[in-house]
Write a structure and sequence with these properties.
The protein has about 280 residues and is of the alpha+beta class. The chain folds into two domains: about 120 residues, Diaminopimelate Epimerase, Chain A, domain 1; about 120 residues, Roll (Diaminopimelate Epimerase, Chain A, domain 1), CATH 3.10.310.10. It has four helices and 19 strands. It has a 17-stranded mixed beta sheet that branches. The protein starts with a strand and ends in a 7-residue tail after the last strand.
C-alpha cells in the first residue's frame, strides 16, 4: 500500500507528516524509527501522524521522535500541521490536540504561525524530577567536582521536560557530548531536552538544543518556550523575547493575562511523496 506524506519543517526542525484523518495509520515505534532514519528512510527529527479531531479540536497530532519514542508535544510541528489545516479550511486559526493537551494556533504577521503552548510547569513533580528540589537551580554538575563546566540548570515542563543551562556563550560548550549525559541523568525519569541558553539582553536569548530522542536540532519550539520561562523566572529577561536557535528565530511571549506561552515562527513545506507500507513494516 502506498501512503502519502508531507515533508515539512519549522526553522530546520523537520518532520514527516502523515494524514490519517480519513484512513487510519497504525504506526509502530519500529516504523517511526525507520522513517526517521536519514540514511535508509526519509529522514526527519520527528514523525507526525494527524488524526481526526476530538474534544473540539480540528485534529489530533501524534508525535514520534527519531529514536521511535512517542512524545507529548512539539511546537514546531504544531505550527506546520496548523498551517496545513488552515490552508485547507481557509480560516486563520486551528485547534490541535496532542498528548500534552490542546494548542490553539493562528496566522500571524509575515506568514508566521502563532501557537499557544499552554502554561509552563515548574513544580519538581511536574517536570518530573526524581526528587524534590528548587527547579530554578537543580542539582546537576558536569565536569570536575571542584570546578564544574556546567552546573545549576533550571527545569521546566512545557508539555515535555526541559533542562536549561544559562551560560556566557552557547557556542563554547560541546553540546553533542554534554547533551546525552543530561538527557539520561538519573534526576530525569522521563529523560529531558537539554538547552544551552545565552542571555544576550533582556529581550534576546541565543539557544542551542539537544532534543530528547533526537540529538542536536536546528530548532525546538518547546525548548525556546522553556528557556524564556526559565529566564523570566530568574529575572534574566522580561516575559517576551526573541529566541535565536541554530535554524533561525522564534518570538516567545509568556503572557501575564493567562500565564500561557505564545510561540510565533515560520512553517514550511519541503516536498510531498509516498512510501510503500511494507518497506517500513506498516501493516
Amino acid at each position: 500500500m502506498r501512503i502519502p506524506f508531507r515533508k515539512m519543517n519549522g526553522l530546520g526542525n523537520d518532520f514527516v507528516v502523515f494524514d490519517a484523518r480519513h484512513t487510519p495509520l497504525a504506526l509502530t515505534e519500529v516504523a517511526a524509527k525507520r522513517i526517521a532514519d536519514r540514511r535508509l528512510g526519509i529522514g526527519c527529527d520527528q514523525v507526525i501522524v494527524v488524526e481526526k479531531g476530538r474534544d473540539g479540536a480540528d485534529a489530533f497530532m501524534r508525535i514520534w521522535n527519531a529514536d521511535g519514542g512517542e512524545v507529548e508535544t512539539c511546537g514546531n510541528a504544531a505550527r506546520c500541521v496548523a498551517q496545513v489545516l488552515m490552508d485547507e479550511s481557509g480560516k486563520d486559526s486551528a485547534i490541535l490536540m496532542a498528548k500534552a493537551g490542546k494548542q490553539a494556533c493562528a496566522r500571524a504577521d509575515g506568514g508566521a504561525i502563532a501557537a499557544d503552548m499552554g502554561e509552563p510547569k515548574f513544580d519538581w513533580q511536574d517536570i518530573p524530577l526524581a526528587e524534590r528540589m528548587d527547579t530554578r537551580n537543580i542539582d546537576i554538575k558536569l565536569g570536575p567536582i571542584d570546578a564544574p563546566v556546567l552546573f545549576g540548570p533550571a527545569a521546566v515542563n512545557v508539555g515535555n521536560p526541559h533542562c536549561i543551562f544559562f551560560v556566557k556563550s552557547a557556542a563554547a560548550h560541546n553540546l553533542e557530548k554534554l547533551g546525552p549525559l543530561v538527557e539520561n541523568h538519573p534526576l530525569f525519569p522521563e529523560r529531558a531536552n537539554v538547552s544551552l541558553a545565552e542571555v544576550v539582553d533582556t529581550a534576546l536569548i541565543r539557544l542551542r538544543v539537544w532534543e530528547r530522542g533526537v540529538g542536536i536540532t536546528s530548532a525546538c519550539g518547546t525548548a525556546a518556550c522553556a528557556a524564556l520561562a526559565a529566564a523570566a523566572r530568574k529575572k534574566l529577561t522580561g516575559r517576551k523575547a526573541q529566541v535565536v536557535l541554530d535554524g533561525g528565530m522564534l518570538e516567545i511571549e509568556w503572557r501575564e493575562s493567562d500565564n500561557h506561552l505564545l510561540m510565533t515562527g515560520p512553517a514550511a513545506l519541503n516536498f510531498t511523496g509516498e512510501i510503500e507500507s511494507t518497506d517500513y513494516g506498516i501493516a
